[in-house]
Amino acid sequence: MISCIIEKKCVFLQHKLINLCQAMRIRCLLICAFLLLSATSLFSDEAEEVRRMLPQLEGPKKLAALGRLHDLSKESNDYQLELKCLYDHLNEARHQGNVQEQCADILSRGLLFYNYDLNDSLYHYVRGDLKFLSGHGQWEMYYRLWYLLANTYVYSDSLATGLKEAQSMYDDAKERQDVQGQGLSYIAMGNAYFNMHNVEEASVVYQKAIDQLMTVHPLPADVPNLFSSQCDVLERIKDYEKLDKLTVQWKEGIEQFVSDWKVPADYPGIQQNWAYYYIGCAQAALGLQRLDHAEQMLSEAKNYIFSEEEDVYRSWLFYQARLYQFRGSANMSLSYNNRLLPLVESVDDKAELVRVKQQRAEIMTLLGRDKAAADLYREMYLISDSVSISDTKRQLAEMNARFNVDELEMKQARLKMEQAQQQRLGIIIIASIIVLSLVIFIYFRLRSAKRLKIAHEKLEKTHDELLTAYDQLEETTAAKERIESDLRIARNIQKSMVPSQFPERDDLDIFASMTPAKEVGGDLYGYLLQDDQLYFCLGDVSGKGVPASLFMAQATRLFRTLAAQKMKPAEIAMHINDALSGEDNEAGMFVTMFIGLANLSTGHLHFCNAGHNPPVLIKDGKADFIEMMPNSPIGFWPGFVYQGEEIEDISNCPLFIYTDGLNEAENRQQEQFTDERLLEILEKTPFENSRQTVEFLGEEVEKHRDGAEPSDDLTMLCLKIIRENK
Asked: Is the full-model pTM beyond 0.90?
């Protein structure tokens, strides 16, 4: 009931804001602020009400309540709160076995990582998430998440990798005959080509994406913005005829989107799409010199712009200034440019700033203010992100030439005087030819001798440079050897931080191993035996290399310290999380961990799983993953309450714990080892002892890789509590 009231209130507020914007802009700002504060208060009240009722809810009602909390958290602009609410909903969906909700949450997690530039987190989860989505046939979410991955590579300057991901995505979608997947892959390719400055190829693939996605019903939400991207590309290559034809398809796309999704005509996102559409029509009309039509389209666009803070308002000012520029009304054009320039300078977009300054320079030229135009071109030359340097230099030279006309005329006058003098001296020159020939002969003889001397000096210099280069090579080689030596020492230190000796007892069989993918890694394991109480853990730090190894060292030290205080596994997880999360964790690193406490006398097992892969318990010849309540990884946010669980008796049942370097190990064909193969080996291979199990699985992983480089650290731990009377 509360949710319904809030949604109705929000719709009312949106309509109220739009009507006020059309009436009075100054008054609108004050009323908007009041209404938004009211909406925020309502959202906060509802969140508290939902949290209060949550302990009383079960099943679908609890899942719906957690979903509502996640929706409300999006209004806070706090990604950590949003991520926490998302994990709460995801964990409950897993607990209830609701696959559809799990898939939706996985996509939401990818979108959150993408929107907040948490690239490392996206890379960490995306491969496993794609496998989960494809395994449950969720192809729309599958290609949407893959599309986010390709764009992440593109916008983090890994253009070749992003283009490769987009091509792989297209091949996969084409094989499945998935039209929407092919369309999204074309958009990702277009983004990559555009950032490579290959705008012609970007235009081709953007158009392919439009043609593909226009056949999908309901129309994907990417299509209206895709038309804007294609419009900018066509204007850049000055293909205004094609842009004019595109506007027809553009209008059909917006109308189809509104019809398919039943979106209200006054919805802000749709109004912004119409504004960009009419500006696109104006761009085509300006390029084709249909100025009256361009003015009409800009007037239509203004009806859909309600705030000077919007990007579309800056675009409207730019083309309004261009319209008056084409009409020769330089003063009117300058007035619009004056309003535009401070807005562009307030945002960090050098490409747009160059474009606006170039327009201003052209206006100054129309006004005859050549010095001001030349100064603007100098500023553009210093920025020169999206404008070619050669074009800017040419225009700067042109302005300098205009500004220095008088000096050029003086040079031409002096040249004429010199020509007259040469005519008068013609007879003297003819008489001096013999003398001049002799001088030239002597000159070239001296010049040849000088060249020989220079060549000899260059040869000596080259010899000295070779000797210097050889010395530098020796220094570089020595430095490289020192670095390799330091890394070997670091690897040995890291190995010394995890146990290499295991207790020899009649009632316990335990063994573990760790193999880093690089010189040092981020996996960890450990144990602490106090009388009949065995503490043990195994974890996987996000990332690899030296940063992960330092984070691993902290987690290992904290585990041993807290286990020595005889805490329960859930308490250990909470204390480690509080120590590793918060403001000190500026890199945003985290670790997944499985922490256990086994009683060797009774076989009883307490454990807490902090976002780690579920262990395998082998009982009566059957290997199965332990079903458990997942907790969030350690390091995301302080104060998180971890839930512990227990198993009554695991006596004589081998327990196998591992990191994803095992089940996600890839061969040369990028095929993974898989969970199914792990269970099959554990079931079919007779258990001799823990060491045999760990080493045998390590050999199987090496066989599977078939020479491929490991992509992640590999750590395994196996234990068995032996009770004869049992």
From this structure: no
